[in-house]
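A reminder from the course coordinator: this example appears on the midterm review sheet, so study it carefully.

Given structure:
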């Protein structure tokens, strides 16, 4: 089983690992695009005004663009600890047992605008680059990633269950055919169900946690739903590849 997570805009600073080594990252077939993007970001970092436009930053966030000038020299840390924010807080990687850390290393992949796809243990530096960024030379990152990342995800998906928890912008970087996708909904007093944003990331973090730490090897959407229910989530399969999860404010089982 592979659990696809989105990255986050916020990232833990620093690190104790050596500088980035592209050859050491998982899925070496992505190295060419990774190297091209790293080069473009390093060049862009020399022009603060252009960097703000490309990365969607304000002048007060120039320190974020400055991170990209140090991508080849900055210290690294494993990807699962680099990314922070609501989803990763809910996942709570720091509290994983030794067995949980081993399962995270085997099961978690993070879809990234800069690196394409990395394992939880892949060492990466802090950076600023998102799926919505628009580089002067290549435009949006999906233009580069789709031709190489979609075949990779198709291969992965043909051999094991993939649970895709990526947000829409990152799912658009490359599709993963056959993956189980998850919507987080809440039910209104009149019975209507609507997609929510407030609980979305936290709920997906909780789901990722239970999928990571289970000893079971799941094979289909029904297994994902059953496991989610053991963690107190209200999960309902709506097709062979789609799962709805209701937030705590939704209906009760």
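Designed residues:
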């Amino acid at each position: 089983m592979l659990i696809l997570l989105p990255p986050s805009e916020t990232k833990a600073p620093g690190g104790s690992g050596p500088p980035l080594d592209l050859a050491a990252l998982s899925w070496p077939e992505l190295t060419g695009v990774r190297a091209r993007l790293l080069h473009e970001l390093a060049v862009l970092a020399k022009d603060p005004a252009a960097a703000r436009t490309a990365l969607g930053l304000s002048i007060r966030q120039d320190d974020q663009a400055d991170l990209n000038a140090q991508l080849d020299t900055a210290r690294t840390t494993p990807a699962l600890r680099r990314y922070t924010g609501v989803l990763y807080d809910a996942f709570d990687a720091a509290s994983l047992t030794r067995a949980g850390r081993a399962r995270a290393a085997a099961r978690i992949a993070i879809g990234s605008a800069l690196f394409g796809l990395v394992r939880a243990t892949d060492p990466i530096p802090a950076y600023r680059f998102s799926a919505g960024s628009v580089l002067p030379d290549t435009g949006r990152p999906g233009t580069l990633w789709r031709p190489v990342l979609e075949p990779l995800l198709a291969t992965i998906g043909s051999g094991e269950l993939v649970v895709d928890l990526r947000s829409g912008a990152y799912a658009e970087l490359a599709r993963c055919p056959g993956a189980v996708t998850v919507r987080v909904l809440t039910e209104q007093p009149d019975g209507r169900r609507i997609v929510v944003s407030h609980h979305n990331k936290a709920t997906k973090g909780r789901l990722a946690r239970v999928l990571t730490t289970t000893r079971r090897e799941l094979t289909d959407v029904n297994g994902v739903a059953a496991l989610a229910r053991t963690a107190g989530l209200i999960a309902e399969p709506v097709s062979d590849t789609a799962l709805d999860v209701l937030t705590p404010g939704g209906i009760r089982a």
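The chain has one domain: 2-246. The mean pLDDT is 93.
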